[in-house]
């Protein structure tokens, strides 16, 4: 069981950083997933294109993933000034409300890394996640589906280029050797990734 305590004021400040601009329903909906990483004396909240940490009272280390809009609705509509979060296997209790979430527990916080993507990311940004993160991290952070989609799009693009250039003697291997080293450290898509 992992716990952390913080104030509503700090949580609303965090939402303003995760969803910059007006705190409209549309901006919050566009942020999609929120990853909460609990470490010693702080909770770090990460959403697409933003990371924000708040100091809080913590016990244990873990990672939780849930919808930003759902999380915002819970915090915004609860009249409490203080919030206590209790994290157990696949659920998080926020004061008296229990919700289902994706959880991951660690003995220490040395491997708790957030997925860093720019706000307006492209296929290259998504594919390069394979250089720095394990498949398990990508699955936990719910970006593995996007990685697979980007890998399929890359393969389709290489196939289309091969189809157009094969009459000039260009091989598929030559196209792979041209594109893959620009995307991946070892010049090929990691075997465990697809």
In short:
By secondary structure, the protein is α+β, with helices and mostly antiparallel strands. It has helices at residues 8-18, 25-30, 68-77, 123-127, 129-132, 135-140, 144-165, 172-183, and strands at residues 2-7, 33-39, 42-47, 50-55, 57-59, 62-67, 82-88, 91-94, 97-100, 102-105.
Task: Walk me through the structure.
This protein has eight helices and ten strands. It is of the alpha+beta class. The protein has two domains: 2-108, DNA Polymerase III, subunit A, domain 2 (DNA Polymerase III, Chain A, domain 2); 120-189, no CATH class. The strands form two sheets. A five-stranded antiparallel beta sheet has the order 5-1-7-8-9. Helix 7 (144-165) packs antiparallel against helix 8 (172-183). The longest helix has 22 residues, at 144-165. The chain is elongated. The mean pLDDT is 84.
Q: Key terms for this structure?
A:
27% strand; DNA Polymerase III, Chain A, domain 2; 39% helix; five-stranded antiparallel beta sheet; elongated
CATH superfamily of the largest domain: DNA Polymerase III, subunit A, domain 2
Helical content (DSSP H or I, runs of 4+): 25-40%
Assign the CATH class of the largest domain. Answer: Alpha Beta
Describe the strand arrangement of the main beta sheet, using strand numbers.
5-1-7-8-9
Beta-strand percent range: 25-35%
Secondary-structure element order, as H and E? EHHEEEEEHEEEEHHHHH
Question: How far from one another are the termini?
Answer: 34 Å
What about the largest sheet?
Answer: 5 strands, antiparallel
Q: Output the structural class.
A: alpha+beta
Q: Can you tell me the CATH architecture of the largest domain?
A: Roll
CATH topology of the largest domain: DNA Polymerase III, Chain A, domain 2
Strand segment count: 10
